[in-house]
Amino acid sequence: MHARRLRASLKGWGGVGAMAVVCALAVAFVLLLPHTQPRGDGSTGLGGPGVAAGRWAKAEACENPQDQSLPPSNAEGDTIAAIKQRGYVSVGVDQNSYRWGYRNPNATEKNVELEGFDIDLARRIAQELLGDPDRIRFKAIPTNQRVPAIQSGQVDMVVRTMTITCSRLADVAFSAPYFLTGQQVLAPNTSTIKGYDETLAGRRICSAAGSTAYDNLAADQKSGKLPASTDISTTVPNQLDCLVRLQLGEVDAVVTDGALAASQAAQDPTVELKGDRFTTEYYGVAMKKDADDLVRRVNRILADYRADGGWKASYDKWLSPTLGRDSESATPPTPRYR
């Protein structure tokens, strides 16, 4: 599609038409995204075969999952050596989460670049690993394909608003947390829904397949915390698809991370956050289970990113307009290692 046509068709994030186009692009572009950085050998099958046995055999054996990462180190092992030999780092990202990882439809550049808070972090990792923030290949990955993409070696890591959870620690390794958030309800301004409470009774809720939002909905409905009459059957591959469903009137509310919901409310002024966040969650960079050298190095990079003001500068640029400068999310989480 011609860039001018694309910008014209998407101009204005608030409309249903724009959201539908972006939703369609999210499905169409689940492939290697073009980039202007130097190319390696063209391979996307990264890492060795197989997946190491999980350290966490059962989710219940894990407590405080955000504190389970390895201590920082600059030491290099086989994983980092392979990345350096290849000449680029492969990163799974989102391309339709406004202010996190998205293609700006109003960009004037000939080649529309990915932008956002997660994209800044991914580029910082490439800079520290390879000396150049452009030695990176992005791959757009749906929410429910983040873990498989890592395990299969399609990407070296995922930087895509991915919550660190005990169940996921059985399948992938995580860095120390780089962002604090929690689940919240998004609904039309005119809705009588007040938050994550009894006002959701009889309502249709949308969440992303494979997300912590759906896991929470299912668990809370089973326990009785969520009304039994709440319909949670609508799930979609990418979280932004829920906003489209909401705009079309196919669902009554969306449950997702508050940080993402705030960005969506900024895209569409007819919707708003309802009530406070009802969970506490942390985003981390996800990597293969046996990539200990890469996990330690990413934690070293994150420590420097926090200390030198890079994290804060990125937050102020991308997230402070929607979350505010005084939000509890405006300060990077303090890491604790196992």
N to C succession of SSEs = HHHEEEEHEHEHEEEEHEHEHEEEHHH
What share of residues are in beta strands?
A: 15-25%
Q: What order do the strands of the largest sheet run in, or round the barrel if closed?
A: 5-1-6-15-7
Number of helices: 12
Compose a concise summary of this entry:
The protein is α/β, with parallel strands linked by helices and 338 residues long.
Description:
The chain has 338 residues and is an alpha/beta fold. The chain has helices spanning 3-10, 16-28, 78-86, 117-130, 146-151, 166-169, 212-223, 240-247, 258-267, 292-307, 310-318, 320-323, and strands spanning 89-93, 96-97, 101-103, 114-115, 136-140, 157-158, 173-174, 179-181, 183-188, 204-208, 231-236, 253-257, 271-274, 281-283, 286-287. Helix 2 (16-28) packs antiparallel against helix 8 (240-247) and helix 4 packs across helix 10 (292-307).
List the helices and strands and how they pair.
Blueprint: H1 3-10, H2 16-28, H3 78-86, E1 89-93, E2 96-97, E3 101-103, E4 114-115, H4 117-130, E5 136-140, H5 146-151, E6 157-158, H6 166-169, E7 173-174, E8 179-181, E9 183-188, E10 204-208, H7 212-223, E11 231-236, H8 240-247, E12 253-257, H9 258-267, E13 271-274, E14 281-283, E15 286-287, H10 292-307, H11 310-318, H12 320-323
Parallel strand pairs: 1-5, 1-6, 10-11, 10-12
Antiparallel strand pairs: 2-3, 3-4, 6-15, 7-15, 8-14, 9-12, 9-13
Helix pairs in contact: 2-8, 4-10
